[in-house]
Amino acid sequence: MNGHTPRTPGTPGTLHSIGELARRTGTTVKTVRFYSDRGLLPPAGRSPAGYRLYDEGAVARLDLVRSLRDLGLDLAAVRKVMDRELELPEVAAACAEALDAQIRILRMRRAVLTAVAGRGATPEEADLMHRLARLSEAERRRLVDEFLGSAFDGVGSGGPVFAGIMQSMTPHLPDDPDAEQLRAWVELAELAEDPEFRAHVRHLAEDLAADHRPDAPPSRHRDVAAIVADLITPAVTAAVEPASPGADPLVATLLTRCAHLLGHRDGPGARSRLLARLERIDDPRRERYFSLLAVINGWPRPQTLHPPLDWSIQALRARTVRP
After folding, report:
1. Structural contact between residues 28 and 22, judged by C-beta atoms closer than 8 angstroms
2. Which CATH fold would you assign to the domain 18-86?
């Protein structure tokens, strides 16, 4: 079932002109002549006037040539299959692999076009997104490695803590990504190449290194974001006003739990340092990165930390006099 016009049975031994063969196979004289000129459809003889004539075997051979071409084989591959130089399953497997690569490219292009249409991107932004979408797996890995290296190389003492963090920040685009994963990859790659975002992540990594001093006991190895999420989320749910006197005990507890990170239990200096730390963590680009990462890797969407972070920032601002 190759979609070709059914041929009319002929009489064995009958020779056909090019026009007759074209009618028998539902194709054009030009197509028959094209394949014949390239040796894929050799004539069985010549008419007295010198015109090419084809036997019944040419009908089946032309059908096979057209079917192989419909499958995507080039003329060289068709010739080798017809001449038994290559086995058809081997050629079909290679063609299927090539088609898979083309499908991935088309999906990438579709993701870029969708993103351009949705965001109203400028020509320069569209060019960047197109370039990012066409990166090979090795090139994607190099981009991510450079991004993570810019953030973590030489920060703190390294070790398993930072190795785990870097792994948790690494996107792994599957071989057969869907449209949402492709759009997420393009946006994440843009973030990873943004010098300002790289500098921001570097600052967060330095904060994290300070949180994980080697001499601190394991119980102290909790970052600020985790402390805020555990302590402040109930206050957000209960609609406690961050600037109200009722929030004072929570702010005091927050400062106490973060004292090992700030150098002092309380005071203007401690509050200012914690406020600056929370403002960095609450950058929407950070949360967007992890949201995109979850889409690419097929992970559950991360819970937003913005509400407890924003509450804490407002509470500290109300109690901190900045120079």
Report:
1. yes
2. Multidrug-efflux Transporter Regulator; Chain: A; Domain 2 (1.10.1660)
